[in-house]
Design brief:
Strand content: under 5%
Radius of gyration: 34 Å
Number of helices: 4
Helix content: 55-70%
Amino acid sequence: MRTNIEIDDDLMAAAMAAGGFKTKKEAVEEGLRLLKRKKAYAALLAARGTLFWDDSDEAWAKAREERQLAETAQEPAATYEVKPAVKARKSQAGAQTKLRGKGKSA
């Protein structure tokens, strides 16, 4: 997206020197990425203390076992026969062929 903005020359020069950027565009884009990461990091910090994490060997073994069970679980075979609720209609092509045969002949 093309955008024209006024940026303080000293601030831009300092940012480009600090990050080793060759262009102003690189410096601005990296600054925007930094703000995005900072916001995501703040959300992670807000969740601090609200999550439970059990890093013991027993917990990992249990999680692995549950995952394997979920991957191998299969639906039981149906014990009934599925039948259509309504009889199927004749195809439109067949009906049109019959109508053509009853018309006037040329």
